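Supplementary notes for students who missed Thursday's class. We covered one full example, reproduced here. Read the sequence, then the structure, then the short commentary at the end.
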Amino acid sequence: MFEEDLQPVNGRFAIPTEPGFGITLNKDAEKRMEIAAVSLG
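Structure (token representation):
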């Protein structure tokens, strides 16, 4: 789902150092995501 390979090391994830959240959404995964709306009320 992400360009980066987010794998834990010794049970912990490294803190990303890139700008923003430090992760990049894979464009192919983004295209496959379902768009849904929820109506409250």
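Commentary. The chain is about 15% helix and 0% strand. Helices lie at 27-32. If anything here is unclear, bring it to office hours.
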